[in-house]
Structures are given as C-alpha cells and as structure tokens.
Amino acid sequence: MQVYLVGGAVRDELLGRVIKERDYVIVGATSEQLLKQGYQQVGKDFPVFLHPQTKDEYALARTERKQGKGYTGFVCEFSPDVTLEDDLRRRDLTVNAIAKAEDGSLIDPYHGKRDLDARILRHVSQAFSEDPLRILRIARFAARYHYLGFTIAKETQSLLKAMVERGELNTLTPERIWLECEKSLTDGAFDHFLNTLAHLNALSVISPALANIWNDQLFQKLQARFEYAKKYNITDNALLFSQITSKLNSDEISAIAKAIRLPNDARDLALHASQHQHVLTSATIHPEQLLFSCNKLDLWRRPERFSAVLKAIEIANCSVIKNQQLLLQASKEARAINPKQFIDQGIKGADIKTALEHARLEVFKRYFR
C-alpha cells in the first residue's frame, strides 16, 4: 500500500501558496483494509475515507468512465490494481495531476511541473471534455492564478469553446453554477472569472443578462472595486457580487438570480443597492425620500440591510460616499425612536404609525435640509 499527496496541495506547495487542505490517494489497498485501520468511509459508493487522527481525505486510486450526460454521469471504478498514473489521468489539468510520495519525490507523468513553471493551464487528456463542470472550474483556476501570470493553453481553450458550443453547460444546475461563482468570489477573483467565461463564450449561456452588460469597461471597473474591497479586507460574498449588478434594474437582477440561483442574501442586497443608491448618493438628500428608502429596507427591524447597502455603494465608488457618516448617524437616531412613547401619550391604533413616521422624518430633516 502506497500513499501519495495529490492535487491542489502539491500544486500550491510548488507555487509557494498556503495549503488549505490535503488530499491523499492510496494505491494497492482495499476499502476493507482501510476500515480495519480505523478510517471512516465518506459515502457508500465513493472510495474516499477520513484519516482516524487527522481527518484528512484519503481516496483509493480510481478511474472514471463516462455514462450518461452531465457532470454526474460517471461510473467510478477502483481496485488495488489501479495505478497512480491511472488515477492521475482522470484529473482535469496537468498542474493538478502531480503526486508527492512519502519520501518527498514527485510523480509527474503528465508534465504538470513543467506547465506550472510555464504558468500554463492545460488539460490532461481528451476525457477532460466529458465533464461540463470543468468549463467553470478552469475559468476559476485561471482567475485565481491570474496574478501569477497563468493562462489557459490554446488547445485547452479550443476544447472548452467546443464544449460550450455543444451545449454542455446546459446540463449544469443553477445551484452548481452558483457554487463555482461562490468559490471564485471567495478567491477574490470574480472579475477575472467572469471575463474568462466571456472569452470562452460561456457567459451568455450561464446568464444572458450578465453577458449583455459585459464589456472591457465594466471589467476594468470591477477590477478597481475588487481591489478596493481587498484593500479594506471586505470578503462578504453578497457585497462582492453586488458590484456586478450595481447598474442593473430589478428585472435584470432577478433574471441573473434565477439563472445562477443566487442565495437570498446576495439577491436581496443586489436589489436593494440598485433600488436605493440614487437616493443615498444624491448630492442633496431629501428627508422624505430617505424615509421612503428606510421603510423599504425595513431599517427599523433590519438595520444591517441599510449598512450593507451603504457598504455596497462605497465599494462601487471605491470611496466612502459623501454623506455616509451622516446617514449612519441619522438612521441610528431615527431607529431609536420607541413606539412606547406615543402609546404613553394616549395615541392608539394606526395613529401610532403616523406618529412614528412623523418623528423619524423630523430626525432626517435635522440632518438633511
């Protein structure tokens, strides 16, 4: 039984990046052997096990055979006879098909180290085209490692474009598309992710609404916004995603949300920022309009919404907006008004709401005249 470190851990170690997780492949063993040693199997039909102490993932060497359509139609075959080279051949990119033995030596049958040094993302074999999810995955890698100078090999670009043209992306669920978007947002490279998809003709398939607005000018704006977010350590995915939709209307944002199955918080923030940014960024803030926005945002019960919208607008402008501090102070003071004070005055029923509205408006008038 031989154990090898594989995949992303080897790749990132060679690039000098922080290793976030370690995956291992085991050659020459059976499930029964690992279970006897205390490993815990993950799932019933997939030969992946958790180490009894470290909880790192250990997988039996395996091959995959395409059966059916989409990214789930694979039959996994594993046995002690599957070699390390067989296991590495099923991987997507040469840079992800490098193994490291326990003595530290590299096993690199598909020249991944050479491609790492040349900063090239290249597919391992033609079997690459059997999995449509790899279109998004390669775009994500190209974006993540863009700062290191990585590019997609020409033959791999051609293969990816052919996969898009065949309609392979249509087999992906909106939930799966969002998962790859989310990973790219976490990488802090979502601008390059979308740009790569656009160049592969894939963005129009994933979201026509996004493709309709995509151009070099928007890409450059997003680069500046994400740099600003990085500078101030802003990592919330909903805030970052809202930068894509800041100039879209509600229908366009809803179409994007449906196409890639945005989580509710990301969808709602995108909608709120789009709907209220004009009022909040106006050179002359009108108290009545501000009150209307605060009511729509439900500031009184959900103050975090108001703060998030202001932060989204700040990132979009790459600076603190003119009245941001005044808006925060005024909203805090207006929110502190307690209905009980009107009840104590004998005000009842619908008149309580009217009194609240009037008192909150008076607060805003003191700040913005």
UniProtKB/TrEMBL annotation:
GO terms for biological process: RNA repair; tRNA 3'-terminal CCA addition. InterPro entries: CCA_bact, NT_sf, PolA_pol_head_dom, PolyA_RNA-bd, tRNA_CCA-adding_enzyme. It comes from the Bacteria. Gene3D superfamilies: Beta Polymerase, domain 2 (3.30.460.10), cca-adding enzyme, domain 2 (1.10.3090.10). Residues 149-211 form the tRNA nucleotidyltransferase/poly(A) polymerase RNA and SrmB- binding domain. It comes from Pseudoalteromonas porphyrae. Keywords: ATP-binding, Magnesium, Metal-binding, Nucleotide-binding, Nucleotidyltransferase, RNA repair, RNA-binding, Transferase, tRNA processing. Belongs to the tRNA nucleotidyltransferase/poly(A) polymerase family. The keyword tRNA processing applies. Pfam families: PolyA_pol, PolyA_pol_RNAbd. This is tRNA nucleotidyltransferase. Its cofactor is Mg(2+). One of its GO terms (molecular function) is CCA tRNA nucleotidyltransferase activity. Residues 3-122 form the Poly A polymerase head domain.
